[in-house]
Design a protein that fits this description.
The protein is α+β, with helices and mostly antiparallel strands. It folds into 2 domains: about 20-130, 3-layer Sandwich (Rieske Iron-sulfur Protein), CATH 2.102.10; about 145-325, Alpha-Beta Complex (Naphthalene 1,2-dioxygenase Alpha Subunit, Chain A, domain 1), CATH 3.90.380. Helix content is about 25%, strand content about 30%. It has 6 helices and 18 strands. The protein has helices spanning about 10-15, 145, 165-170, 175-180, 270-300, 320-345, and strands at about 20-30, 35-40, 45-50, 55-60, 75, 80, 90, 95, 115, 115-120, 125-130, 150-160, 195-200, 205-210, 220-225, 225-235, 245-255, 260-270. The strands form 4 sheets. Strands 12-18-17-16-15-14-13 form a 7-stranded antiparallel beta sheet. A 4-stranded antiparallel beta sheet has the order 2-3-4-9, with no helix packed on it. A 4-stranded antiparallel beta sheet has the order 5-6-7-8, with no helix packed on it. The chain is globular. This is Rieske 2Fe-2S domain-containing protein. Keywords: 2Fe-2S, Iron, Iron-sulfur, Metal-binding, Oxidoreductase.
């Protein structure tokens, strides 16, 4: 009897659950209230809770004693008490108390995996690391979110499938001309195009040549402690004041077969224009945006998991190829650094 051994590409295995040492959005802020919650993100099970002051904390949802879910326990300020045996774990991963065996060797050890979290733009972000770190690097987002000159709304959804298909979708402006051709904002422009890649200080722009501000004509990829994508869609006059609207997008793997997608819809408006835009969005435009997003979801969820292994690409896909190559290079670097560290050699 012959035995066949299947080996998984280590680069693909890493990418499937998300690169390390990056900030990722993991859920809207409203997901975490008074009680601890458990979320599966980035291939891990994470316990999130707020202390009495509302400050967020996060630990791997795994008690270092026997592996019970900490999220089922009691909040004690910056600590969680495991419901199984009462072991108390501080937000930095340190076991502060073992009620059943005071003074045992588990007490005082940093035995649990902790995560840095922060809230911004209606979203909880988590720094993805496999080890406990004291100070994570900063992250920044595009001006559409960081500048007070813009107003924004968060659109959050969970899609079945690999998060990399969601990234490919945003890095493919041409699909807007066909899949979204009945949209109120993507019905114009040429159905043929030539694309180019333009390098930026934080990444690159994939754009149509000779057409701008007519349809979904460009996508920007950025890496600023967090990976994000940005695009711009023209608005008809019925969309209210403020000109074109922008979308800032992120995609976070849940478990390799599910994706959390974040789309911030942004517009540069102030004074009465801000109020008008926000009213129009809630009462007219939001439903149209969701309809467009549903078209993307249905298309991606119906694709086979290995669809990207049976492709015949052409010029419109050079942005997708560039992004895939970039992510694989980053994964290669992380794997090499991890191997060097394990061997005791300089990274």
């Amino acid at each position: 009897m012959n035995t066949i051994t299947l080996t998984q590409d280590p680069v693909d295995a890493l990418l499937k659950v998300g690169l390390k040492d990056l900030w990722y959005p993991i859920c809207p802020s409203g997901f975490v209230g008074e009680r601890p919650v458990s979320l599966r993100r980035l291939g891990k099970k994470i316990a999130l809770w707020r202390d009495a002051a509302g400050t967020l904390h996060a630990l791997e949802d795994h008690c270092p004693h026997r592996g019970a879910p900490l999220s089922q326990g009691m909040v004690l300020g910056d600590r969680l008490a495991c419901p199984y045996h009462g072991v108390e774990v501080r937000c930095d991963g340190t076991v502060t108390k073992v009620p059943g065996s005071p003074g045992c060797k588990l007490e005082g050890t940093r035995a649990a995996l902790s995560f840095h979290v922060q809230e911004a733009w209606g979203t909880i972000f988590l720094y993805n690391s496999d080890v406990n770190i004291d100070t994570p690097p900063p992250m920044t987002m595009p001006e559409e979110l960081s500048s007070p000159e813009y107003s924004h709304f968060l659109c959050y959804a969970e899609w079945k499938g690999d998060y990399r298909y969601a990234l490919d979708n945003v890095m493919d402006p041409m699909h807007g001309t066909f899949l979204h051709k009945q949209s109120h904002s993507m019905a114009e422009g040429d159905s043929t195009a030539t694309f180019q890649i333009r390098t930026t200080d934080t990444g690159f722009v994939f754009e149509k040549t000779g057409q701008r501000g007519v349809n979904f004509d460009w996508t920007e990829w950025g890496s600023t402690g967090v990976h994000w994508m940005r695009l711009e869609i023209p608005y008809p006059k019925t969309g209210g004041p403020g000109g074109n609207f922008a979308i800032v997008a992120c995609a976070t793997p849940i478990d390799g077969n599910m994706t959390a997608v974040f789309f911030w819809r942004c517009r540069k408006v102030s004074s009465w224009q801000r109020d008008t835009w926000r009213f129009l969005y809630r009462n007219r435009l939001e439903a149209r945006h969701w309809a467009v997003l549903e078209q993307d979801r249905i298309m991606l969820e119906q694709m086979e998991p290995d669809a990207n292994q049976h492709e015949n690409l052409y010029q419109h896909d050079i942005g997708v190829v560039r992004l895939r190559r970039h992510l694989r290079n980053l994964a290669d670097e992380q794997l090499e650094a991890a191997a060097a560290a394990k061997a005791g050699a300089p990274a």
